[in-house]
Amino acid sequence: MTILLIAVLIVLSIQQTVKGKLPFIRRIAALDAIEEAIGASVEKGTAVHYTLGYPGPQGLASGASAALMSGILCMGYVAEKTAELDAKLITTHISSDIVPIAEEVIKTAYLKAGVPENYSPDMVRYLSGFQFAYTIAVLGIMERENVGTNIMIGSFMAEALVMAEAGNNLGAMQIGGTTSTIQLPFFVVACDYAILGEEIFAASAYLSKEPIRAGAILGQDRSKYLVVGILVIGVLLQLINNTFLYNLLSG
Amino acid sequence: MMSVLKNPIIPVIIVFCVGMLVTFEYFVDVPTVKLVSTELQKWVTILITFTLTIGSVNLIKSQSLKIQRKGPGWSYSIITIVTFALMMLLGLYSIFFTPEGLLFPAYNYVIRNIQYPVNVSMFGLLGFYIITAAFRAFRFRGFDSTIVLLAGLLVLMGQAPIGAAVWDQFPAISYWIMNVPNVAGARAISIGVGIGAISMAVQVLLGYERGWMGRLER
Fold first, then answer.
1. What are the pLDDT digits (tens) for A215-247?
2. Residue A25: what are its φ and ψ, rounded to 5°?
3. Are A58 and B48 in contact (CB under 8 A)?
4. Is A58 strand, coil or helix?
5. What's the gap between Cα B29 and its chain centre?
6. Which of B4, B41, B145, B160 is the most exposed place for a label (fewest CB within 10 A)?
7. Span B150-209, pLDDT tens digits
8. For residues A123 and A51, what is the distance between their CA atoms, to the nearest angstrom?
9. Which of A14, A69, A161 sits opposite B126 (nearest CB)?
10. Closest by Cα among A250, A160, A245, A197 to B188
11. How far apart are CA B39 and CA B192, in angstroms?
12. What is the CA radius of gyration of chain B?
């Protein structure tokens, strides 16, 4: 029932935002740093590497699909910036089902930037379907192709720290973001900027400034108020041994 | 007919219908819905297997391009293509010409004696990377980093046997840090992530978000 309530809140917020003004989204330093990082790469003549991480064998159909979707949207933004600033872009992938999506997103980004001729199929590289085979390949690419900016936004498992530390050893500017509470601390420690948890979902709205996406963020915030309210009321009711809310929500 | 199939609204309608059917499974207790939903999820696994072909073609293309251009590390690209071809041929031979199929000894030998040890070695590297990352992170730089340093130190002393030998309260303090503030923070992030995932699902199902089609704007 809570899921339905949240879904309704999100739809209503989207409708409200489309008809009215954009809600305020606070500054997210990691996302502001993307353009700065790509600019620095252009100045130093280094490449920009982008990865969506390892969502598991199911790829886009896995439980991490929401984080992957956000990562794909951020990849489009990064591709637009590399197109505008004429930086070398390398995106590496472990899930084969994302490869055609990535090709389309990057091609569209380069077309939107007005330089479709600068798009190269080599920008999208499927490396392996296995976690550490992919990780080793990424390490090799970062070392050999002189990667100066390493952006990791998506769904990550154990390979997160390996890639982040490798980037750190190379002196690359790193921006990491994931929804995994286990991998987040590694990004906070090893990356210059980290996108924490739900900020990854705000990324697409923050970067594109589109009303629908901004409305979804507003809906998410309202849903959080709802959830916190339910939590507080639930705790108070439990303290007086009233299980009405617990029974209602657990069905 | 072709122009109808190219209409971008058709994949959105398919996603909506299939997505709502799979979502309904969690809200209704109708055997037919569960059966259809389970079957659709099996189809997803099969479709993903087909996309491996796209990935393989992309891999061969990009490695071949590197060999052609003699890009950095092009010799590794030759090794990649040769090993890819060898494993593919060995796998196909195992499936079609041996009674054991993928349990064929030669195939399993390569998997168990080459692939598994390399995977495990990379996992082993993680331990060293954690140490180097912790060495950089645990510093007296400001208030936040000092808290991280102290918490890390207390948990380390609690987890290591020497900690309990030095002071018997270290394990209890470590347990409290791991199970109270740590879990509280993780749960807060998980709640936000869960709501974000629902939001993304609603946007995809209702066609607001079409990034999965390669379209960044509607």
1. 999 999 999 999 999 889 988 998 898 888 888
2. -115, 125
3. yes
4. coil
5. 31
6. B4
7. 898 899 999 989 988 999 999 999 999 999 999 999 999 999 999 999 998 898 888 888
8. 11
9. A161
10. A197
11. 31
12. 26
The answer to whether A80 and A112 have CB atoms below 8 angstroms apart is yes
B116: exposed, middle or buried (C-beta count within 10 Å: 0-12, 13-18, 19+)? exposed
**pLDDT for B59-90, tens place per residue?**
999 999 989 988 878 898 999 999 999 999 99
Distance CA A182, CA A89 (A): 28
Q: What residues of chain A lie within 8 A of the CB of B52, using their CB?
A: 96, 129
Check: complex ipTM more than 0.95: no
Partner residues linked to A178 by β-bridges:
A154, A196
Tokens of A107: 């091609």
State how far the alpha carbon of B180 is from the alpha carbons of A192, B176, B183, in Å. 28, 6, 5
Q: Cβ–Cβ of B51/A162 closer than 8 Å?
A: no
Using CB atoms, which residue from B58, B130, B190 is nearest to A126? B58
Structure tokens at B108: 């399993």
Q: B76 CB near a chain A CB, below 8 Å?
A: yes
> pTM of the prediction?
0.89
**Token pair 């209409």 is at which residue?**
B7
What 8-state DSSP symbol labels residue B115? I
Q: Are A134 and B66 in contact (CB under 8 A)?
A: no
What DSSP assignment string belongs to B70-104? T-TTHHHHHHHHHHHHHHHHHHHHHHHH-TTGGG-
DSSP for A199-233 reads HHHHHHHHHH--HHHHHHHHHHHHHHHHHHHHHHH
Percent of chain B residues topping a pLDDT of 90: 31
